[in-house]
């Protein structure tokens, strides 16, 4: 679809996408992909795509964006997608998966009934979307704190997620409740390895869904009082069993064992008013924002947008288009949690502004 918006790019409110750029994201009524190109008053262009997640994960979408940009410039495609579904065939015999997968995933027929009006209560703490930037220096600082007191090296995403887990727990007024955090793991590299860590087949170009969402479940009071390095250790420990080939082979078997019934990651089934704060962190660090060039230069800004209708929050950190190591962080979280973050962690989560993106009429000329 083609559209026109009576606004200059420099006047777009990136920090609050619900009232601005989200309005330029098309609603997919059928098929697997819907694209809307919106021309702005200044001559700029916003390209927004809506994917069906049952067909493609973010990694697959990234491949599509890069190939699309290359085709637009009459360049050869650098990544030929693989549709070899046999790479995800179940083992024989199926059904020999680890029982822990039953704690991570649930068939649709076993979902608990939706909460009643009385259980939901009356509140305006609905989920909203915000976009922040986190500087490379702050990311390094969080990683340094997560690695203090002799702890083994934690990754940037583990350190960032641990900090966010603590902050979300601190936003809760009920120390007796539990707080859950999931982290999305891509299985392509894991499924390409043998038992000795050598590559046996390449899934780097596999187009589809190869994801798992392990999650941690800790008491609010524990997360509030424990230091960041302890929380980062908890994150590392619940991830370590899910970043293996065996985990993903077991997940393939689990799905096969429950066919044809659809299933859902259990963390998405949480009810925050009853179960406590719950959110998922996905990693968009491979988002190729600088490579999506249709012939008129690299984008000034790029982001995922995931305003789903569930109760669990969703966080997606991505590389900044400035290429300086900063992160752009999209958040779809309860309003109260975001207000707490902005008050208590304003030195980390800074609202994305046109000043950060260096948007002025002079820059856009």
From TrEMBL:
InterPro entries annotated for this entry? CAT-like_dom_sf, Plant_Fungal_Acyltransferase
Domain of life of the native organism? Eukaryota
Pfam family for this entry, one: Transferase
Where does the secretion signal sit in this chain?
none
The family note in this entry says: Belongs to the plant acyltransferase family.
What is this protein identified as? Shikimate O-hydroxycinnamoyltransferase-like
């Amino acid at each position: 679809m083609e559209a026109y918006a009576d606004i200059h790019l420099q006047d777009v409110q990136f920090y609050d996408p619900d009232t601005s750029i989200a309005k330029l994201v098309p609603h997919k009524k059928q098929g697997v992909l819907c694209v809307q190109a919106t021309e702005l008053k200044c001559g700029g262009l916003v390209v927004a795509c809506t994917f069906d997640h049952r067909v493609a994960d973010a990694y697959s979408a990234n491949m599509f964006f890069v190939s699309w940009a290359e085709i637009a410039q009459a360049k050869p495609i650098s990544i030929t997608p693989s549709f070899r579904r046999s790479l995800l065939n179940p083992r024989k015999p199926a059904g020999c998966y680890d029982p822990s997968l039953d704690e991570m995933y649930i068939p649709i027929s076993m979902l608990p009934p939706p909460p009643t009006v009385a259980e939901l209560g009356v509140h305006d703490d609905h989920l909203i979307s915000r976009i922040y930037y986190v500087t490379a220096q702050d990311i390094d600082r969080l990683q340094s704190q997560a690695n203090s007191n002799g702890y083994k090296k934690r990754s940037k995403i583990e350190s960032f997620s641990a900090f966010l887990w603590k902050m979300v727990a601190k936003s809760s007024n009920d120390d007796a409740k539990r707080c859950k955090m999931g982290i999305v793991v891509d299985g392509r590299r894991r499924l390409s390895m043998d038992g000795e860590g050598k590559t046996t087949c390449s899934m780097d170009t596999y187009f589809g869904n190869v994801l798992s969402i392990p999650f941690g479940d800790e008491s609010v009071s524990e997360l509030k009082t424990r230091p960041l390095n302890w929380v980062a250790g908890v994150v590392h420990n619940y991830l370590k069993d899910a970043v293996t080939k065996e985990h993903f082979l077991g997940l393939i078997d689990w799905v096969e064992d429950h066919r044809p019934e659809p299933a859902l990651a259990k963390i998405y089934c949480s009810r925050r008013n009853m179960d406590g704060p719950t959110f998922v962190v996905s990693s968009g660090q491979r988002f190729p924002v600088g490579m999506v060039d249709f012939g008129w230069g690299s984008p000034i800004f790029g982001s995922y947008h995931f305003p789903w209708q569930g109760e669990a929050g969703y966080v997606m950190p991505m590389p900044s288009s400035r290429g300086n190591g900063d992160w752009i962080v999209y958040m779809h979280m309860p309003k109260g949690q975001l207000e707490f973050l902005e008050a208590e962690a304003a030195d980390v989560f800074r609202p994305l502004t046109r000043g950060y993106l260096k948007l002025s009429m002079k820059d856009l000329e």
